[in-house]
Amino acid sequence: MDLSQIQQSLDAAAEEAGRAAAAAATTDELRSIESRVLGKSGPVAGVMALMKSLPGDQRGAVGKLANETKKAIEALFAARREELKHALAAGDQARGAAFDPTLPGPVRLRGAVHPVTAVQWEVEDALARMGFVAVSGPEMESDYYNFEALNIPAMHPARDMQDTFHVDNGCVLRTHTSPCQVRAMERFGAPLRVIAPGRCFRYETLDASHENTFFQVEGLMVDRGISVANLIAVMRVMLQQVFRRELKVRLRPGYFPFVEPGFELDMSCALCDGKGCPVCKRSGWVEVCPCGMVHPNVLRFGGIDPAEFTGFAFGLGLTRLAMMKYGIADIRLLNSADLRALVHPERLCGPLI
Ligand code: PHE
Fold it and tell me: What is the Cα–Cα distance from 193 to 133, expressed in whole angstroms?
């Protein structure tokens, strides 16, 4: 090998080292490449080993070349090491600046049942345990089932109690779930325990406590010897389960043509346990639902003999109950698309009762 060949192979080694250094992505990688290139079995060491076999006058020149190449390669690795250190530090810094540990994590939107549905399920559960079966009826109802068969004949002043949407075909949008009473009696006869949850409609001007579309659950129990005591017991057990606490109930007289006697049922205020608070207007009682003993005429319309059977019925306002349970102050929120009220009513309206 002559001097120019040696020079060529050292230049090639330096060039190869430069490429490998540029390709190194970490300082560790760089270090291992460097020790390979400059190590005992590397190209520079190979040239040094050759020196012994060279004629004496060439040794000095070859040694110089090898040393220069070694220095050049060392300098090249040192420069690349600095470059890598800066790049990695800048990357860390950039990542560090983008990460703010105080930011809240990603919010996953989760669906939830509507508050009215949630309360409906609880009412259904409680009553199902007492043997009540859920039935349904049409939302567009005939005048017969909505009024006539409920002991509210045409021209009866009680029709004024329920502002009604009339449909062109002579039907009405049912003003309550009570039509389901007569339909269930016709279909199943006595004895009978049914509930009928569903949407009702009234021609109301909207405000915080009036909606033209709301939900009720009708309850009807018919058997031999059913009395007001059964009504009170069933309502108390059901409400205790929905509100998850001991409650008292009381009846006040109320008028509905399809029950006799008719009542308004109150329960002890679930917020203050009957001690008196703004929600119950300091009375300790909140009005829950109208109810009463099924009028003999209604039993007859349903094909049941009032001499043999008696029954009670109630018309629980589900929308109202949901408002009470979740502390929702404005009824209009329930038919809105305001997810704050619908998915997390307690967030918008304070703690659950
Ligand atoms: N249907 C009545 C209403 O909506 C409520 C009711 C039901 C009253 C059952 C008594 C018995 O106004």
Answer: 6
Neighbours of 216 (CB within 10 A): 26
> What is the Cα–Cα distance from 110 to 168, expressed in whole angstroms?
41
Q: Are 24 and 86 in contact (CB under 8 A)?
A: no
- Atom 12 in ligand 1: which residue has the minimum CA distance? 176
pLDDT tens, residue by residue, 62-77: 888 888 888 888 888 8
**pTM (2 decimals)?**
0.69
Buried b or exposed e, range 173-187, using 16+ CB within 10 angstroms? bbbbbbbbbbbbbee
What string of DSSP letters covers 179-202? Answer: HHHHHHHHHH-SSEEEEEEEEEE-
Does the pLDDT of residue 276 top 80, yes or no? Answer: yes
Q: Where are the domains of the chain?
A: 3-95, 115-347
CA–centroid distance, 317 to ligand 1, in Å, is 9
H or E, element range at 288: strand 285-294
The model's confidence at residue 47, banded by pLDDT at 50, 70 and 90, is confident
Ligand 1 binding pocket includes 313 (Cβ within 6 Å): yes
Q: Are 267 and 237 in contact (CB under 8 A)?
A: no
Write down the pLDDT at residue 349: 52
CATH 3.30.470.30 for domain 115-347, yes or no, is: no
Determine whether the shortest distance from the Cβ of 182 to ligand 1 is under 6 A: no
